[in-house]
Amino acid sequence: MDNDSGTSVFKTDACFDTAPASGYHMIAGLNSHKLQMLVFDPEKNKFIAFAQKSIHFKSNYQDYYKLLHLFFEENSLAQHTYKDVVVLWESQRSTLVPDALFDPTGQELYFQFNQGTPADEKVYSDKLKTTEAFNVYAIPCDLGKNISFKPFRMRHHASVFIESLMIYSKHSLLPKQVFINVHHGFFDMAVAEKGRLVFYNTFGYKTAGDFIYFVLFVFGQLKLSPEVDRVILSGEIVKNSSLYEVLYKYVRKVDFAAPGVQYANSHILNDIPAHTIHNLVNAVLCEL
């Protein structure tokens, strides 16, 4: 069943209506301009439902919570009980701390040092198993109270991004890989070498010029070669966009993140480019 419009998408596999949802996994992706839900069936090893709604949000979290409530109330996927629910919060406000330096009682100080004092936010951390580090991040204080699913696990998008790229890197034959994950107004950039994370940061941008400036800055700082080193793209970037065109002008080897087996099995996602929901898909596969 498909019901697509300019700002909303709703898709379900026929099997979703014939089996109890209590065995399924739900991933809810939340950011400032898009709300998403993706349902995974571990028995069939495929995604069987997807919902997405575009929103317009600037700074008032009370307004955001109203939009969130409306999304859950209008969407039948939110009316079920799931075996596992992961809520993926997407924002720039995070920082990595090495295992050797991390003290859970001091995570607010780590965050403040790099991101400033949390404003109406609470600081959390995710242990990253593949990098011997913690991702320390902030989430709006009342966000959890406005999530329809109970219980659920909250995670930061960068935790999933880093864990999934490191798994890919450790199985790659290439000595170096550059990963760029594009969001609305900012992007994550990471570099892995021989299965080890050597760089991660986020950069805000308003124009394609901003975007390529930061990409080439990282290339220069890490002595990467625009002719040799491959960039793997995910997130909100498509081939005919100004971001892609300026990137390909300066970096010769550019690929989109390849879909996994679970995506390939999921016919409801056939018309959704795999790289655009790469992080959402990987949230169910990463052990966080």
Describe the structure.
The protein is of the alpha/beta class and 288 residues long. The chain has a domain at 171-256: 2-Layer Sandwich (Nucleotidyltransferase, domain 5). The protein is 24% helix and 32% strand. The chain contains 7 helices and 14 strands. It has helices at 61-74, 107-115, 157-170, 208-221, 242-250, 261-264, 278-283, and strands at 8-12, 25-30, 34-41, 46-54, 84-89, 94-98, 121-128, 133-140, 153-156, 176-182, 186-193, 196-204, 231-235, 254-256. The strands form 3 sheets. A 6-stranded mixed sheet has the order 1-4-3-2-5-9. Helix 4 runs parallel beside helix 5. The longest helix has 14 residues, at 61-74. It is globular and about 55 Å long.
Oligomer: single chain
What fraction, in percent, of the residue positions are helical? 10-25%
CATH architecture of the domain at 171-256: 2-Layer Sandwich
What is the CA-CA span between the terminal residues?
32 Å
Strand content: 25-35%
CATH superfamily of the domain at 171-256: Protein of unknown function DUF3822, C-terminal domain
**Which class do the helix and strand fractions yield?**
alpha/beta
The geometry reads as globular
- What's the helix count? 7
- The pLDDT mean sits at 91
Spell the H/E element sequence: EEEEHEEHEEEHEEEHEHEHH
Number of strands: 14
> What low-confidence regions span 5 or more consecutive residues with pLDDT below 50?
1-6
Alpha carbon gyration radius: 19 Å
Strands of the largest sheet, in order across it? 1-4-3-2-5-9
